[in-house]
Write a structure and sequence with these properties.
8 helices; Alpha-Beta Plaits; four-stranded antiparallel beta sheet; alpha+beta; 2 domains
Length: 231
């Protein structure tokens, strides 16, 4: 099947320029969404990953065309990029002081933009254009849907600072009285402030259909709770 891109699939100065430009635009477009949210990897990082993957695939195609199939596998270098980008992506995933994992979407985005760069580098323009549209919609348009799903989840992870006159069992009893179950409980003494203050991480679920804000509001009224938020 003929395509408007058929004339620029071979390695030439024109096709190299087009591929590098398309890789930079694709990476930058996806990176801007991460940059706006002040994520570890943003605009320039995404561009670099996309352009770098593109360069690798162009080089692989050039070596294959110049030396022939007896010398190299046209997909070998691309496979190494997919493996290697995992280390870069892992560096963007961090665990906060409240045991909250951040950076997974950024890491997935880096891996995906590397795949996009490889497709550009080999000259598969159709999948790049359609794939970029799909990826951009996922990273931007699906954010509200993702938030709604999270808010309607049955379980809610909470961070609590507790300073009660008794032990924390009083809080557990209070939660049960309000039909809220507590699980995955983690406690430690506050090392920076008053040693009577407990820092607590837990998962709560209500027997009734309460919103996350309603659960937080009810538990926030428990005696001894100085601070509470969802994580």
């Amino acid at each position: 099947m003929l395509s408007i891109f058929d004339g620029i699939r071979d390695v030439s100065i024109l096709s190299i320029c087009i591929r590098l430009l398309l890789a930079a635009v694709t990476g930058g477009l996806l990176g801007m969404e991460r940059e706006k949210k002040n994520r570890p990897a943003g605009f320039r990082t995404y561009m670099l990953v996309s352009v770098g993957a593109c360069i690798v695939m162009i080089t692989n195609q050039f070596v294959f065309q110049y030396f022939g199939s007896t010398v190299t596998d046209p997909t070998r270098m691309g496979a190494q990029v997919i493996n290697g980008i995992g280390f870069l992506g892992a560096g963007t995933i961090v665990m906060t002081g409240k045991n909250k994992i951040k950076g997974i979407t950024t890491a997935a985005g880096l891996w995906t933009v590397a795949c996009s760069g490889l497709a550009i580098g080999i000259g598969f323009y159709e999948v790049v254009i359609l794939g970029t549209i799909c990826l951009f919609l996922i990273m931007t348009g699906m954010q509200r849907l993702d938030k709604r799903i999270r808010l309607r989840a049955k379980y809610i992870d909470l961070y609590i600072e507790y300073k009660g006159t008794g032990d924390f069992s009083q809080f557990i009893e209070y939660a049960r009285d309000h039909q809220i179950s507590v699980a995955d409980l983690q406690m430690q003494r506050n090392k920076l402030g008053d040693d009577k203050t407990l820092t607590i991480l837990l998962t709560a679920t209500s027997a009734f259909k309460l919103s996350h804000q309603e659960v937080i509001s009810r538990l926030g009224e428990a005696p001894g709770v100085e601070f509470i938020e969802e994580i």
